[in-house]
Please model this.
Amino acid sequence: MNIKRLLFWICFLLFLALIFWGLAVAINKPLTAGPGSLSTPAPISSLDHVYGPANAPVTLIEYSDFQCPACEAKFFVVSKLLADASTTVRLVYRYFPLPQHANAISSAMAAEAAGAQGKFWDMYDLLFTNHIDWTELADPTSVYIGYAKKIGLDTDKFTTDLGSSTLRAKIDADLADGQAIGINATPTFFINGKVINTPQTYAEFKDLIDKAALPSTK
Model:
């Protein structure tokens, strides 16, 4: 084989390797959204799940999927933010169940059913901190009921509410709102109505919150 032919095959193989590398990166890219051209989320209403003081200078809205691994990872970051900046930030949690996650809807329904008894945030914590226990189950209902018992819910009501069309309507409304403003991945965060690039570290997230809490210079 002459040198020119050898160089040709080397270049060709390198080209193929680059193509396969690009495909691998695309397939394994985390489901997180950048700022893009997303619109402003719907105003906060009495139907929203809100954690933190009503007069907090920073409102963090999260569109999330309980089964999403990236959402699970950010749960721990957001929880630390809420603890460290308890007077500065409030969290508004909105559902954005992704179609590729078989238990996204059922876990959202578990959270709503708990919320119907005033325990949304307790179920929110359990769903994320015990992520591995239910996400791959064909039917995680018994796990949800176990969580309901753990946080002191009326399990008969909870079980009935898991099939409630009224509670499902809240999830569907959040999803429709997210789709209307252009969301296509989770988690997607807004700070005071403006979408942000999802920070990779706690320090980056805390810096954004701190800056948003500063008095306006306008």
